[in-house]
Amino acid sequence: QVQLVESGGGLVQAGGSLRLSCTASRSIFTDMVWYRQAPGKQREFVARITYSGSTTYVDSVKGRFTISRDSAKRTLYLQMNSLKPDDTAVYYCYVFGSNTWGQGTQVTVSS
Fold first, then answer.
1. How many CB atoms within 10 Å of residue 92?
2. Which of 110, 105, 103 shows the shortest CA–CA distance to 91?
3. Are the C-beta atoms of residues 91 and 35 closer than 8 Å to each other?
4. Which helix (H) or strand (E) holds 96?
5. What is the pLDDT of residue 57?
6. Exposure of 79 by Cβ count < 10 A (0-12 exposed, 13-18 middle, 19+ buried)?
7. β-strands 105-110, 55-57: how paired?
8. CB 22 within 8 A of CB 32
9. Which residue, 23, 38, 47, 51, shows the most beta carbons closer than 10 Å to its own?
10. C-alpha span between 63 and 86 (Å, rounded)
């Protein structure tokens, strides 16, 4: 079974930027997704990218976040700009249609 390892989280001030990475143990030929879970809230969809590169986003991050993938590096990215305190959460990558999740990376945005 494929394994996913996330990195890139941290503490940033509001208005700042972070780039999350999710590296897979083998090539993935299907959609990949970023989710996030804030304290006391349910896990929510953030962004999705198909193998061919088509993308969708939750309305709250449109224009601020960009999902991308580098198949040669087996890596999924989430570029996050203009961060807000409401973006504070643990971010998870996910292989669509599977039960494969990364371990999560914490993003904290201070006001």
1. 21
2. 105
3. yes
4. none
5. 98
6. middle
7. unpaired
8. yes
9. 47
10. 15
Closest CA to 109 of 7, 14, 19, 20: 14
Residue 19 pLDDT greater than 90, yes or no = yes
What is residue 1's predicted lDDT score, i.e. its pLDDT? 86
Joined tokens for residue 60: 């709250």
Structure tokens at 59: 């309305």
Average pLDDT over the chain, rounded to an integer? 96
Written as six digits, the tokens of 28 are: 């993935």
Q: Give the HSE-up count for residue 47: Cα atoms under 13 Å, Cβ half-sphere.
A: 21
- Rounded CA Rg of the chain: 13
The DSSP code for 39 is T
Q: Hey, what are 6's tokens?
A: 């996330």
Say whether 59 sits in a helix, a strand or coil. Answer: helix
Looking at the predicted structure, is the pLDDT value of residue 5 above 90? Answer: yes
Q: Which two tokens stand for residue 20?
A: 């999350």
For 85, list phi and psi in degrees, rounded to 5: -55, -30
Q: Which two tokens stand for residue 76?
A: 């999924």
